[in-house]
Amino acid sequence: MRTNVLITGASSGLGAGMARVLAEKGHHLAITARRVERLEALKTEIETAHPGVRVVTHALDVTDHDQVFDVFTAAAADLGGLDRVIVNAGLGKGGRIGTGRFHANKQTAETNFVAALAQCEAAMEHFYERKAGHLVVISSMSAMRGMPSSMTTYAATKAGIAHLAEGIRSDLINRKGHDIKVTTLYPGYIASEMNEGVQQETRMMVDTETGCRALVKAIEREVVDAAVPAWPWAPLGQVMKHAPLGVVRRMV
Ligand SMILES: NC(=O)c1ccc[n+]([C@@H]2O[C@H](COP(=O)([O-])OP(=O)(O)OC[C@H]3O[C@@H](n4cnc5c(N)ncnc54)[C@H](OP(=O)(O)O)[C@@H]3O)[C@@H](O)[C@H]2O)c1
């Protein structure tokens, strides 16, 4: 079992939800985010519900890249090594390209892609040293194609991190004597702070717990990649990949 799990962006939504499900299954956790008071509340909740589970918290802004490396090292020391890292912290800000929203688009690009790169670097350094570990990257169904309007930068970052994960996986091919796996997850609509109040998404949205249970199931199977929940997102993903762009833009 990959006992010790670090999760970034664990102060709300999918990160907090996955922490709850993983704790139920007996994993020790390092939970990180900027809102530390949320992390402390989650730690108390989890340790009360599961007295055998150890939870450590670390304040982490993933766009502070030095801090990413420092916090991963500190969390590994706290727990006696990290067996799995879930690169989850993310942002959904943005606007149509060319409409003066560069600042928001840049912030999304920096948080979802450059900061994810820092997290992958820090995690893989640790896993290479230990010759073991599981890197999990939270992409999005929006990574399937170029997306319009406020989704353009977000979708591009999510496609970017999926390719980043695939490249890391490629580095592991023919590398002997290790147990390192890389999983890319493509969530559909799962209720969280990010999509609160977004009306058109609710048709296909599952609640946070259902979504997080499905995410953890895919993580524990250590699949290469998966659309989550599988229904309707796995078949829809195939349609999104092959449909004309004019059709795809009406699907989001
Ligand atoms: N919910 C969905 O339907 C859905 C679908 C596809 C993909 N995703 C992906 O799932 C991941 C989690 O999102 P969510 O839906 O759970 O949204 P959320 O509830 O808004 O959670 C986002 C998390 O990311 C953290 N975060 C944001 N910027 C950060 C930064 N600079 N440094 C550190 N942490 C940061 C936030 O923590 P602090 O603000 O406390 O730092 C928060 O814990 C994201 O990568 C998102 O793109 C979600």
Strand content: 15-25%
Radius of gyration: 17 Å
Along the chain, the helix and strand elements come as EHEHEHEHEHEHEHH
Shape: globular
What binds here, in terms of ligands, is: NADP nicotinamide-adenine-dinucleotide phosphate
- Secondary structural class: alpha/beta
Cα separation of the termini: 37 Å
Helix content, binned percent: 40-55%
| Overall pLDDT metric | 96
Count of runs of 4 or more consecutive helical residues: 8
**What is the topology, as strand order, of the major beta sheet?**
3-2-1-4-5-6-7
> How would you characterize the largest beta sheet?
7 strands, parallel
- What is the β-strand count? 7
Detail the poorly predicted runs.
Answer: none
What does this structure look like?
The protein has 252 residues and is of the alpha/beta class. Helices cover 49% and strands 16% of the residues. It has helices at residues 13-24, 36-49, 65-79, 102-130, 152-172, 208-220, 230-242, 245-251, and strands at residues 4-8, 28-33, 55-59, 84-87, 132-138, 179-187, 225-228. Strands 3-2-1-4-5-6-7 form a seven-stranded parallel sheet, with helices on both faces. β6, α6 and β7 (225-228) form a beta-alpha-beta unit. α1 (13-24) crosses α6 and α3 (65-79) runs parallel beside α4. The structure holds NADP nicotinamide-adenine-dinucleotide phosphate. NADP nicotinamide-adenine-dinucleotide phosphate binds at residues 8-15, 33-35, 60-63, 88-91, 111, 138, 140, 187, 189-190, 192-195.
Sum this structure up briefly:
This protein is of the alpha/beta class.
Question: What is the secondary structure topology, with strand pairs?
Answer:
Blueprint: E1 4-8, H1 13-24, E2 28-33, H2 36-49, E3 55-59, H3 65-79, E4 84-87, H4 102-130, E5 132-138, H5 152-172, E6 179-187, H6 208-220, E7 225-228, H7 230-242, H8 245-251
Parallel strand pairs: 1-2, 1-4, 2-3, 4-5, 5-6, 6-7
Helix pairs in contact: 1-2, 1-6, 3-4, 4-5
Bound molecules: NADP nicotinamide-adenine-dinucleotide phosphate (NAP).
